[in-house]
């Protein structure tokens, strides 16, 4: 009886602890709250989770990874799910965190349990917590950069020109100044908004537009050198822009980017990366260019042939998705739009040094990214006007600060007004819609994970040719939808290939074939046949495995 009571009380504790974790998702969480929830999940599911701190920011915030899986997680195909890529897109942090919560909550379900037994999940909810902290600061401000002190405007001073809340409303928004030579007008579509004047339409600007604040260093620029200075999403090596804005002193120079990159490179089993930020190839899939391969070197007909042959080089740097990877991207995009109900993708923003493209072009994995939530732009309206129309019908809280005149020391005697879209409003759903956003993204990620590559050995045949000579053939099939490596991964050489191995405890030799064969990538559903001529008898095993797609084995006896 005591055991029954103890079990009942324990079950209640787990139930209420889980309920507390799940209920906590209906709000945006600070970095400290996220790490607290990760710790609670790790304690509640000790057989399924481990937690690891992979780095600490300049402001002292820990970057944590929650690993979810059974057994030896590093020996099974893995998926990385990463939020906090961009400090404006804080909903991505909640989607990553909510995914971990729901996956563990449903781990007793047969389908989810089977998935966790075959795939390992690495969840990094907040990859750049210093940037994300802008949402929780006072005043609230859209922050892109970490806390690394940086001379952003290269004037040999550091962090000397931050934002200021001039109207005291607790938000850093925009500032417009009445100027006859200005480039901006009030938008005819929505008079609260500003847009650039179009001379082709006979429009003449009358306003200048700045971010809210004061020109502290008197260099003519506003708020260009606040606290810190490097953007996680501009600090990776693909298309890295040297001396670029917020790019850092070199690629992967920052504690945050190094921590995430080192973790990913240390985990060869990861075959796909899903991230949440401004880059979007799920709302609208990438399409391959006509030629994505590096061109071979060919003799140049324009050069005279003089003993030493002249060659012209084609482009060697690949900057477009490969065709097979594009097909998978299209499949995933269709699934994403189906689960979320979104349409009218915000489009892909190619930022120099962004994480999503690095994960594909340099890390070599399937890489998918989305803001996680957006409002479709209506025909004939700007994205801002479309959002304000949506907000009027669907969002209870105010998303726009009405323009308010202020006194400004840098513009004496001029009309200066502060207002505009509230920070974060256009990039993140209101809290009352956050649950459905997290849930739809969770369902998509579960479906996407089911597509993982998986080797299967089948159609084993043994044939006795002579007294101790046998021919053995077997087919290796990838029964998953995704290939054993992305087509790009096959190019960058940073993916483990399938190893097919013939083993036996008995003495034997091979008249044909090798004991260990390194197999090229297999597309989804593709099969390949392997054959051996074996001299000897006994019990044998053939195995096929790579940690990024799993393993299978088949046994037989030769008599």
> Mean pLDDT, as a whole number?
88
Second-tier CATH architecture of the largest domain: 3-Layer(aba) Sandwich
Inertia-based shape:
elongated
Percent range for β-strand residues: 15-25%
CATH topology of the largest domain: Aminopeptidase
Structure, explained:
The chain is elongated, with a radius of gyration of 28 Å. It has a six-stranded mixed beta sheet, sandwiched between helices. Strands 8-5-14-13 form a four-stranded antiparallel beta sheet, with no helix packed on it. It is built from eleven helices and 22 strands. It has 559 residues and is α+β, with helices and mostly antiparallel strands. The longest helix is centred in the first third of the chain and has 22 residues, at 2-23. The protein has three domains: 26-134 and 235-375 and 430-449, Aminopeptidase (3-Layer(aba) Sandwich); 151-227 and 377-421, no CATH class; 455-558, Sandwich (Immunoglobulin-like), CATH 2.60.40.10. Helices cover 24% and strands 25% of the residues. The termini are far apart.
Question: Which labels suit this protein?
Answer:
four-stranded antiparallel sheet; Aminopeptidase; single chain; elongated; 22 strands; 3 domains; six-stranded mixed sheet; disordered N terminus; alpha+beta; 24% helix; 559 residues; 11 helices; Immunoglobulin-like
